[in-house]
Amino acid sequence: MAQRLYVSVCGNIGAGKTSLVERLCQEFQWQPYYEGVTGHPYLDDYYRDMPRWGFHTQIYFLTQRLRQQQEIAQIPISVCQDRSIFEDHEIFAKSLHLQGILSDRDYNTYRLLFDAITPFISKPDLLVYLKASVPTLMSRIEQRSRGCESGITLDYLEHLNERYSLWMEGFRYCPVLTLDADRLDFVRCERDFRFIVEEVKKILPLALRLPI
Question: What's the rounded Cα separation, in Å, for the pair 118 and 60?
Fold first, then answer.
């Protein structure tokens, strides 16, 4: 019986996480778990007024992610997740706090909840990091034309990219496969996607802690 695998795809807004999760799940017969953007009750308000709705938005995302983690812990087959629960804190909540969008009080409350949750959740076996420049991110955000994302600024994306770089430098939970999302068009170019598939296959033995 094949060993169960838990893969998480991470990256900035517009990096292509959802598309890659969908394609990897089709390729490897994994169960997909997508980020709960559709139906998010605060997201439109958040992009219009981040200081007013930042705390509500992050708490909602954390709640949805915890529900996913509970399902992932029980499902008997391999899964691939669009954004991990660790990004919620390390990238978005921290970023909002550093920019003064989340107050000290709100950030500390969020952090208390996050710290209470994380000892009980599963860690990924493999993290796939889609690294993209701000021009690439903006282009893809514009192409998908989500109304709630119309207020995203270059500065905000750049700040998030800086947070991702810092997070990746200290990430130790599992092996990381970093992919150049500026160069790889895995949606329209089959050769690029096949390259990613081969890279995933190379790193799977390490992710599963098996001999190569």
Answer: 16
pLDDT reported for residue 148: 63
- Strand ranges, E, within the chain: 6-11, 31-33, 79-82, 126-131, 176-180
| Mean pLDDT of each 10-residue bin along the chain, 212 residues long | 84 94 96 80 86 92 89 92 92 92 95 92 93 94 73 88 95 93 94 96 76 41
**Region of residue 84 (left: phi > 0; alpha: psi -120 to 50; beta: else):** beta
Q: CB of 160 within 8 A of CB of 95?
A: yes
Rg value, the chain, Cα:
17
Catalytic residue among 82, 88, 106, 125: 82
Domain annotation for the chain: domains and CATH numbers: 6-202 (3.40.50.300)
83 Ramachandran zone, left/alpha/beta (phi>0; psi -120 to 50):
left
Model's pTM, two decimal places? 0.89
Per-residue pLDDT at 193: 97
Q: Determine whether 82 is an active site residue.
A: yes
The Cα 207–Cα 212 span in angstroms is 11
